[in-house]
Design goal:
With about 270 residues, the chain is mainly α. It folds into two domains: about 170 residues, no CATH class; about 70 residues. It is about 80% helix and about 0% strand. It is built from twelve helices and no strands. It is globular, with a radius of gyration of 22 Å.
């Protein structure tokens, strides 16, 4: 996972979803996640996933990265389903629910800079946890840069040691060990700098205003509608099972229309 690519998408995107407030996006993600977890009908959960896919397409996110990351939980869920699911339908539910939940979280981080996600959470988390999350975000980029240099060093050492896999493995282990030591030293240096500057807890991050309150309201209304649909199908599942294909068909149509719109040159 390339953290810098995710941050670039979150900070440089210009879609309506990028401009929505972090609080609205977090609330919408929570509603969709609750809908996916609450629902027991596979087609309704699949409809949630298709709508999220349409949202990713409409926001012009890097689809290969978004869907590639969302597929990872699906693979692990499929392995778990093969081992523990009582039947094929239950196994499919595990996989589709995992992919849907992951897709929602991935879209959130691709359209929202991490400090903006962190700011609303900071109000409910303990100070030390919130500050650690903020400093970890900064450190990820320093470690990513260091890791790129280490990868180059490993490649060069492996090239010099071609035909000697033991020597190449030793070079890789040495490089990764130095990365761990660098991370520990970086954490200590950052802590010392904060203490020298008078840090006593309570780093604060402000959330920018939403680009459009109307879009925020529409986003929450759409997420609330998905959650309400999941509640209705959960409470009246037996009666609504024959028509459970309708939400999936509607979501698939929305995805197709969004794909067609994205293909239009701009």
């Amino acid at each position: 996972m390339d953290v810098r690519a995710i941050d670039l998408s979150a900070t440089s995107g210009h879609s309506r979803l990028h401009g929505a407030s972090a609080a609205a996006k977090l609330a919408a993600f929570g509603l969709v996640l609750a809908a996916a977890v609450l629902q027991q009908n596979l087609l309704v959960v699949a409809a949630c996933g298709l709508l999220l896919a349409a949202l990713a397409v409409g926001s012009r996110l890097p689809l290969r990265a978004v869907f590639g990351l969302a597929a990872y939980p699906g693979v692990f869920a499929a392995v778990f389903a093969l081992a523990a699911a009582p039947d094929l339908l239950s196994g499919a539910m595990f996989a589709v629910r995992a992919v849907t939940a992951a897709l929602g979280a991935i879209i959130l981080v691709f359209v929202t800079p991490y400090p903006q996600i962190f700011a609303p959470l900071q109000r409910v988390l303990p100070e030390v946890v919130g500050d650690a999350m903020l400093m970890t975000y900064r450190s990820l980029f320093l470690l990513a840069d260091k890791f790129e240099h280490l990868r180059l060093a490993i490649r060069l050492r492996s090239g010099l040691s071609r035909g000697h896999p033991v020597r190449a493995a030793r070079a890789s282990a040495s490089a990764l060990g130095s990365l761990v030591l660098y991370a520990v030293d970086l954490a200590q240096r950052e802590y010392d700098v904060l203490r020298i500057r008078g840090y006593e807890g309570g780093l604060r991050v402000s959330s920018p205003a939403a680009a459009s309150r109307v879009f925020d309201a529409g986003l929450l209304l759409a997420a609330g509608s998905v959650f309400a649909l999941a509640v209705v199908f959960r409470l009246a599942g037996a009666a609504l099972t024959p028509v459970s294909w309708l939400p999936a068909a509607f979501a698939a149509l929305v995805l197709l229309v969004t794909l067609a719109w994205r293909l239009v040159p701009r």
